[in-house]
Amino acid sequence: MIEIVDYKPTWTAEFLEIGLKICAALGSNALAIHHIGSTSVPNLAAKDVIDLQITVAKLEENVLKPKLEQAGLVWRDGIIHDHCPAGLTLPDTELEKFFCAWESGGIRRANIHIRVEGRFNQRYAL
Predict the structure, then answer these.
(1) Largest CA distance in the chain
(2) pTM of the model
(3) With the C-alpha atoms ordered 65, 67, 68, 72, is the resulting torsion angle positive or negative?
């Protein structure tokens, strides 16, 4: 069940904490880390899960997965693309991604979307 809660001013600081941990784990493999989704919008009620986007030059599972798992994230093998927005037709490559999550271990719950710089899904999330 998804629960929508009132806006929490702490969401920005929580994003920064998670983003710094991801940055430390990935180093130069992360071109950018952005706070995306409903918790990134000031004063908007949202589900209490921080969404982050890691922008990379290319999707290299053998590079990214071990680094993120070592940092405590749970890799989701079955989530490898985004849905195409209604009314659009896009090549599959424009929607490719990796997905992982923080679910425990002292860090708040977070969804992490890994997308290639310049592709439709990377730009759309921003």
Answers:
(1) 41
(2) 0.94
(3) positive
- CA separation for the pair 42, 40 (Å, rounded): 6
Q: What HEC string does the chain produce? A: CCCEECCCCHHHHHHHHHHHHHHHHHHHHCCEEEEECHHHCCCCCEECCEEEEEEECCCCHHHHHHHHHHCCCEECCCCCECCCCCCCCCCHHHHECEEEEECCCCCCCEEEEEEECCCHHHHHHC
pLDDT in tens, 59-116: 999 999 999 999 999 999 999 999 999 999 999 999 999 999 987 666 788 999 999 9
Who's near 112: CB < 8 A, 6+ residues apart?
A: 22, 51, 52, 53, 54, 68, 73, 99, 100, 101, 102
* Residue 104, amino acid: S
Residue 18 Cα to chain centre, angstroms: 10
